[in-house]
Write a structure and sequence with these properties.
Layout (H helix, E strand, L loop, with lengths): L2 H11 L4 H8 L3 H15 L4 E3 L4 E3 L1 H29 L3 E7 L1 H18 L3 E7 L13 E6 L7 E7 L2 E5 L1 H5 L14 E3 L7 E7 L2 E7 L1 E4 L3 H9 L4 E5 H9 L4 E2 L5 E3 L4 E6 L7 H16 L3
Parallel strand pairs: 3-4, 3-5, 8-11, 8-12
Antiparallel strand pairs: 1-2, 5-15, 6-15, 7-12, 7-13, 9-10, 9-14
Helix pairs in contact: 1-2, 1-3, 1-4, 2-3
Length: 297
């Protein structure tokens, strides 16, 4: 049965005649009459009995009208509930954030989000690899990338700069100011694709690639930062991990005349491609974008 016809039937019953019903529905009288006949044919019973003076409901018509009213009320309640979700989002959101960025920067942002939205729950996972959001059951992911995958909706949050740095004690041993001198240093790096880790340096549009042999490799940038502070060598850190330590004198910048090209130069917010995201997901995306807009670049 076409439920829209049942809702139309309620309008017919609640108006004095078919002409008035047609006017309220924005249809022609003949169209309303045709729709009524279609409903009666689908139900298999006459719903209205016409006399010279009035139109009466049959027993089947009374039953159909009662269900039509209930259906209309349920539809109205559903719309009100959906509107309530938009105004007061509720639900569960699964979010994935990078290890270092997640703990150093995004942890308080996510906690503030929970304070503002008491009816939303979060499941937060920490990882640096690009996720298949659908396969991994992730609603929202934050990642440092150069080019986001084309299977997701990607919103750029900010640019990421990289620092080539070491402790002052390690830097004091760096008496060769040329990039080639970097080869002599022990290096802390993410796992490379081969035996060497390529360090890319840019100056005046020219890019130089140096193959370094890491002493220590790790996927967790927080651990890499601790290794650099412990004097394990030189390495790359993103600006949000390095700049505060450089300002405090705990780390120093190496080869300051060069721009360091890291493994990703932009921070992206990734979501699955859907025209109607859940209100809770939409609220988290808006919260993260608002934070990113106020985050110093």
């Amino acid at each position: 049965m076409d439920l829209n016809l049942l809702l139309l039937f309620a309008e017919i019953v609640e108006t004095p005649n078919l002409s008035e019903a047609a006017r309220r529905l924005g249809l022609s009288r003949s169209r309303v009459s045709q729709q009524l006949k279609t409903l009666e044919r689908q139900i298999g019973a006459q719903l209205m009995r016409r006399t010279t003076r009035r139109v009466d409901l049959t027993d089947a018509g009374h039953t159909a009208y009662e269900h039509a009213i209930r259906l209309r009320e349920d539809a109205g309640a559903a719309m009100a509930a959906i509107a309530g979700h938009r105004q007061h989002p509720r639900g569960h959101v699964r979010v994935s954030v990078p290890t270092g960025l997640g703990r150093l920067v995004l942890a308080p942002v996510l906690l503030d989000f929970l304070r503002e939205h008491e009816e939303i729950t979060l499941r937060v996972t920490f990882g640096n690899r690009i996720d298949d959001l659908v396969a991994d059951n992730i609603d929202v992911a934050v990642r440092v990338l150069s080019t986001p995958p084309d299977t997701v909706v990607a919103r750029e949050l900010r640019r990421i700069a990289w620092r080539l740095c070491a402790t002052p004690e390690i830097a004091a041993r760096f008496d060769d100011t040329s990039p080639e001198g970097l080869r002599r240093f022990p290096f802390v790096a993410p796992p490379p694709s081969g035996r060497d880790y390529p360090v890319r340096l840019s100056r005046r549009g020219a890019v130089k690639v140096l193959a370094t042999s890491p002493r220590l490799q790790a996927e967790d940038f927080l651990f890499m930062r601790e290794a650099l502070l412990a004097g394990m060598g030189a390495g790359l850190l993103p600006d949000y991990m390095a700049d505060e330590l450089i300002a405090a004198g705990r780390l120093v910048t190496l080869l300051p005349d060069y721009e360091v090209l890291g493994p990703g130069d932009r921070l992206f917010l990734l979501t699955t491609p859907t025209p109607h995201p859940a209100p809770a997901v939409h609220a988290l995306v808006a919260h993260l974008r608002k934070f990113a807009a106020s985050w110093p670049h």
